Amino acid sequence: MRLLLIRHGQTPGNVRRELDTSFPGPGLTELGTRQAAAIPDALRDEPIDAIFASRLVRTGLTAEPLASDRGLDITVLDGLHEIEAGLLEKRSDEASVQRYLETAFSWGAGDLDVVMPGGTDGRAFFRRFDAGIEIVATTAGTAAVFSHGAAIRVWTAGRATNIPPVFAGRHELENTGVVELNGTPEDGWTLTSWAGLPVGGAELADAEAGDPTGGPLP
Fold first, then answer.
1. For 164, 167, 203, 212, which has the most beta carbons within 10 A of its beta carbon?
2. DSSP string spanning 8-42?
């Protein structure tokens, strides 16, 4: 099957460079709403067969324009939510953001025993995200999966068989950026495209936003 992993639109936390991972989470900024509205036309030539979103509000809001355009329901899956920041939640200082990213991307590199401060380890993250993708993979054809910056990047680092894990850490994934993979949970996944900019084009990017989970590792 074909996976389109789509990051949600911009949130206030992205603008403030804030680690904002808790449930239910914020909605979208005005720019985030415009980013979401651009998705149907940007994906006009994509044969979307099913649409999934995480349990956080921002992914559902981002998925709505595409679902309405295609006449499809949005299936909410618990395992697709963002990597929890634990004790780093709501922090925006450089040291906290760096700790969060280094911990998360160590999981993508295979060091699954590292624990997020006050949170979970890599085994727990991959267990729940894999479980969500296994449900998505029952779809025949192409599935649009609306998830989150760190979660998409770290899962791709750990599961794509044709790239080194550092690839995902070195490449940005801005709001509504799309990561495309082909494969199955049984046979593995191959990365076929990494479009880090918003799907509607560079004019929908926000160069001034701090956005801690979408940028490349320092």
1. 212
2. PPP-HHHHTT-----SS-----HHHHHHHHHHHHH
Answer for the pair 32, 11: CB distance below 8 angstroms, yes or no: yes
For 2-203, give the CATH class: alpha beta
Amino acid symbol at 87: L
Q: What are the C-alpha distances in Å from 75 to residues 59, 67, 117, 126, 145?
A: 11, 10, 31, 20, 9
What is the Cα–Cα distance from 196 to 189, expressed in whole angstroms? 19
H-run or E-run covering 192: strand 188-195
pLDDT of residue 140: 83
Dump pLDDT digits (tens) for 136-181: 999 889 999 999 999 999 999 999 999 999 999 999 999 999 999 9
CA atoms within 13 A on the CB side of 30: 0
Report which residue type is found at 107. W
Whether the model clears a pTM of 0.85, i.e. scores above it, the answer is yes
Within its chain, how far is the Cα of 96 from the centroid?
Answer: 20
Angle value at C-alpha 68, between 46 and 61, nearest 5 degrees: 100
Pairing mode, strands 2-7 and 188-195: unpaired
In sequence order, what E strands does 57-97 have?
A: 74-76
Take residue 162 and report the two structure tokens written for it: 């044709």
- Domain ranges, ordered by start, for the chain: 2-203
**Hey, which residues are catalytic here?**
8, 82
Task: Give the up-direction half-sphere exposure of residue 145: CA atoms within 13 A in the CB hemisphere.
Answer: 32
